[in-house]
Amino acid sequence: MISITGLHKSFGSATVLRGIDLEISQGEVVSVLGSSGSGKSTLIRCINGLEKIDGGRVTVDGFDVSKPRELADARKRSGTVFQLFNLYPHMTAVQNIALAPVEVLNVPRKDAEAEARRLLQQVGLSERADAYPAQLSGGQRQRVGICRALAMKPSYLLLDEVTSALDPEMTAEVLSILANIAKQGTTMVFVTHEIEFARSISTRIAFLDKGQMIADLPTEDFFSDKGMAMPRVAQFLSKMRKD
Ligand SMILES: Nc1ncnc2c1ncn2[C@@H]1O[C@H](COP(=O)(O)OP(=O)(O)OP(=O)(O)O)[C@@H](O)[C@H]1O
Ligand SMILES: [Mg+2]
């Protein structure tokens, strides 16, 4: 389980997360929604130990991400995919995917590369397995990025706007792959502006507003009168639907 209690995070004098509480159990797909600047990416970075937290506690399967000795264990459990496909340009798709299993988990290279090819096949990229990132489209690169996270067999997949740099066709491509991964039971924390997609794959919606989690509801409730009764949620949804 990912457990976040009383999480505070500031950058200089700007407080970005103001006491976040969130628990995510195995098998859940939680979408984190909220306006630009509300703190969604910062939250994901805190879960993955990429930001030093200023208060509260974040644990992943019981490992405290603020303790250097426990961070590596916490990280092994959660794979992160960011908005921009940060693949290594000098490595092929297969090499990018196999890198961490070889270096971090000591998987023999041959096995790691075979697994990488299997993952690429799952996302419809068998034929591009030996291509370099520069030879791939944005959507293809993002699919390689997702495979790279999955290669570590994470208990939790953290996804931060993985489709926001993609055109609608590539977005659809990547979203359908994520829907498949969700169906297989991978626990996901999904930051997105794709409201309808969030609605279709999530078990729960967490809504951030200026660094506070003002709603944490089962998806059905969030998109019903219950969610709409919250002025910030209603305002956000009506604006997103217009855009
Ligand atoms: N490294 C940093 N240094 C200073 N301020 C930062 C840093 N990272 C984020 N911030 C600030 O923290 C706030 C929250 O940023 P964050 O990236 O978490 O928002 P977000 O909800 O992910 O927004 P978006 O939807 O635009 O991606 C913003 O005001 C941002 O300017
Ligand atoms: Mg962000």
TrEMBL record:
Read off the SMART domains from this record: AAA
Source species, domain of life: Bacteria
**Family, similarity comment:** Belongs to the ABC transporter superfamily.
What Gene3D superfamilies does the record tag this protein with? P-loop containing nucleotide triphosphate hydrolases
User: What is the species of this protein?
Assistant: Ensifer oleiphilus
* PANTHER family associated with the record: AMINO ACID IMPORT ATP-BINDING PROTEIN, GLUTAMATE_ASPARTATE IMPORT ATP-BINDING PROTEIN GLTL
Query: What is the name of this protein?
Result: Amino acid ABC transporter ATP-binding protein
Tell me if Transport is a UniProt keyword of this record. yes
Q: How does it sit in the membrane?
A: Peripheral membrane protein
Q: Indicate where this protein is primarily found.
A: membrane
CDD domains reported for this sequence = ABC_HisP_GlnQ
Q: Which residues form the ABC transporter domain?
A: 2-235
Cite the entry's keywords alphabetically.
Amino-acid transport, ATP-binding, Cell membrane, Membrane, Nucleotide-binding, Transport
Q: GO CC annotation: what is one?
A: plasma membrane
What molecular functions are annotated in GO for this chain? ABC-type amino acid transporter activity; ATP binding; ATP hydrolysis activity
Q: Name the SUPFAM superfamilies for this protein.
A: P-loop containing nucleoside triphosphate hydrolases
**InterPro entries, from UniProt?**
AAA+_ATPase, ABC_ATPase_HisP-typ, ABC_transporter-like_ATP-bd, ABC_transporter-like_CS, MetN_ABC_transporter-like, P-loop_NTPase
> Can the keyword Transport be found in this entry's annotation?
yes
Which subcellular locations apply to this protein? Cell membrane
